[in-house]
Amino acid sequence: MTTQSTSTRFLNQTPYGYSNVVEVTGGRLVFITGQMARDAEGNLVGPGDLPAQIEQAFKNIETALDAVGADFSQVVKLTVLSVEDFTSHMYAFGEIRDRFVNRENPPASAIILAPKLVMEGALVDIAAIAHLPE
């Protein structure tokens, strides 16, 4: 059996907290479905409070990463869906995100405005992809 080396390269980083290109080879990819601001019992956290919901969504991603033995340093892509206009919340989003992600090698990211999310009252849904060694 041939063992392939694992590498992750974060290229063309922006001053806005994300990389335009992330290249991965070897290892395994972990896909984390969009996380909304739900507590352990499934209740909505922070109704009407986008920053509180962003914080909880990142905490939920952290829990999901932990389940596979990973952490935020291995996240290579974030996709954010929000029903709120992010322009008035970009600073708060960046501040919260930066407490979780690897700021030296930030993940590629996308923010998409959505008309509605599945959970009533949810303002944000954040999905992640992580790259782990074998």
Amino- and carboxy-terminal Cα gap: 13 Å
* Strand arrangement, major sheet: 3-6-4-5
Mean pLDDT: 93
List segments where confidence is low: pLDDT < 50 over at least 5 consecutive residues: none
Number of strands: 6
Radius of gyration: 15 Å
Number of helices: 2
Helix content: 10-25%
- Note the beta-strand portion: 25-35%
Largest sheet: 4 strands, mixed
Structural class: alpha+beta
Shape summary: globular
Order of helices and strands: EEEHEHEE
Description:
The chain has 134 residues and is α+β, with helices and mostly antiparallel strands. 22% of the residues lie in helices and 34% in strands. The chain has two helices and six strands; from the N terminus they run βββαβαββ. It has helices spanning 50-67, 90-100, and strands at residues 7-13, 19-25, 28-35, 75-82, 108-113, 124-132. The strands form two sheets. The protein has a four-stranded mixed β-sheet. The protein has a two-stranded antiparallel sheet with strand order 1-2. A hairpin with a 5-residue loop joins β1 (7-13) and β2. α1 runs parallel beside α2. The chain is globular, with a radius of gyration of 15 Å. The model has no long low-confidence stretch (mean pLDDT 93).
